[in-house]
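Example record

The entry below shows one chain as it appears in the dataset: sequence first, then structure tokens.
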Amino acid sequence: MPAPTLTTARLVLRQLRVDDAAALFPVLSDPEVMVWWSSGPHASPAETEAYVKGNASEGQGYLCWAITAGDDVALGWVILIDGKPDVKEIGYILRRDRWGSSIAREAVARVIDHGFGALKLRRIFADTDPENPGSIGLLERLGFQREGRLRSEWETHIGVRDSLIYGLLRDEWMMEKTK
């Protein structure tokens, strides 16, 4: 099942497509964007195309939305990855020149709304590097609670890394939205 199109005041979130690879190569090849990613910067457009193709495939256990600002050009993506019943992991990436514009917050919040609304999830969690202040700040601004630290959880291009786990429950999200 493809990811349904979601909209916000500024954004259109639509199913990630293989043809988004060209727009996403500058994102996935940017060392500053990829420093906290589980893999290093992409060396070629072909590498990005293969990676995007995997994330754009249906039936892989996740929904992946391209973040667009109305011109249909992918700026990044938001993904919901299957976990236990009624639980999904959220992940996101955004072009560096759009950092600080609240686009990531807007896109992630809209996917959270979809997860707790249409998908009837009870919990959404995220996994981030302890030294990634941008991601930690985004999660905390959205109401996620730090639940734990997994030591030496990931082997990445920058070495073995710990992971912080953040969680958000449906009731917490509903309360956060009414503030």
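Notes for this example: Helices lie at 21-28, 31-34, 45-56, 103-116, 133-141, 170-178. The chain has one domain: 6-178.
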